[in-house]
Specification:
Helix content is about 15%, strand content about 50%. It contains four helices and 16 strands. Strands 3-4-5-6-12-13-15 form a seven-stranded mixed beta barrel.
Length: about 250
């Protein structure tokens, strides 16, 4: 069920839904990874990965600097997979993979942040798997960089080289974001309005460290993997509605 609660008390402050982000900057990279390996990583969610090509799933790595929003300023890193909606049948036919992509959502598997307020809000309101980390970020250079460290150990370092400008559109795309916490899988409607977008094929470098999360990502073949594509967004507005339980 969608939660009827439209406001939450987080560390003594009132957070109302929808939660709005008025300005953020993002760099991301998409990778094709073995579908069976990705399926094993997210098995706890009850969801299944989308396969645009047989045997291949899509994993996205993204780092975000939130400058102005209802949850305050913070840094965030995300590991996400494209997944099929719960209960949807496996795609059939030669174009089945492309049809599956059209209805795919983003399952948020790992979501470290560097501020306590957004950590509590994310876990409480949507069941997002936020955890505290040291997240250093440089979005000003010709190469945009991020490093995530937990307990003094490096989990991942990502560098993204911006591509060519992409013409902007007027529509605000709606994305279905999925999360799983404490055995409950939720779906959150997520609207994004990007500007100053650049994209290119390839363009990312990933280096994994010695943290246990790095070993999991290494099982997907992400250590120094070649990206399918990379994108940067200079300014991004977002809104997050209430979460809906879809699997328990």
């Amino acid at each position: 069920m969608t939660s009827a609660v439209r406001a939450h008390a987080i560390q003594g402050e009132r957070v109302e839904l929808p939660v709005r982000i008025r300005d953020a900057a993002v760099a991301s990279a998409m990778f094709a990874v073995p579908a069976d390996a990705a399926r094993a990583v997210i098995a706890y969610s009850g969801l299944d990965v989308a396969e645009p090509l047989p045997g291949r799933a899509i994993c996205s790595l993204a780092f975000v600097r939130y400058a102005d929003g209802d949850l305050g300023p913070y840094h965030e890193f995300a590991v996400a997979f494209l997944v099929r909606p719960p209960g949807s049948p496996p795609p059939a036919g030669a174009l089945g993979g492309l049809r599956a992509m059209a209805g795919a959502g983003a399952f948020i598997h790992w979501l470290p942040v560097n501020q306590e307020f957004t950590l509590e809000a994310g876990r409480t309101i949507w069941g997002f798997p936020k955890e505290m980390a040291d997240i250093s970020m440089d979005l000003a250079g010709r190469v945009q960089r991020c490093a995530v460290r937990i307990g003094g150990r490096t989990a991942i370092e990502v560098a993204v080289r911006p591509g060519a400008p992409v013409p902007g559109g007027s529509a605000a795309p709606r994305v279905e974001a999925y999360s799983c916490m404490d055995g409950v899988t939720r779906r959150t409607p997520w609207t994004v309005t990007p500007s100053d977008v650049r994209m290119r094929p390839g363009g990312a470098k990933v280096v994994l460290g010695d943290h246990p999360v790095a070993e999991e990502l290494r099982s997907l073949g992400l250590d120094r993997a070649r990206a399918l594509s990379t994108s940067t967004v200079g300014h991004l507005r977002m809104s997050f509605e209430a979460a809906e339980e879809v699997l328990r």
